Amino acid sequence: MNIIHATTLDDFRIYAPPKGRLFLVSDDGNAAGCVGLAELEPGICELKHPYVRSKFRGKKLGRKLVETAIQEARSIGYTQMRLSTREMLKAATSLYRSLGFK
User: Taking residues 90-96, what's their average pLDDT?
Assistant: First the structure.
C-alpha cells in the first residue's frame, strides 16, 4: 500500500485552492483512492500520487479520479498537465495514454 506521510498539514498546502486540489473517491462509503493536483509553474500543473486501493481496482475509479482532476485543472486555467509514472505500471500507463498523456 502506498502511504504518503505528512508531518504537518502544511505538507499538504500544495493541494490547497486556489491552485491545487486533493480528490478522494469512495465506494460504498469506503475510502478507495485519491489524487492530487499541484501547480508546477504558472499554467502548468502536475497530477500527484494517483492511487486506488487494490480491492477497488477494476471499477474505473482511477479513470474517474484522473478525469475529474483534468476537468478541474482546465477550470483553474492550467493549459498543461504533467505526471510521472513507471512503465511497469501497465494499467496506469494505459489509462494515462488513453487520456492523452504521452
Answer: 91
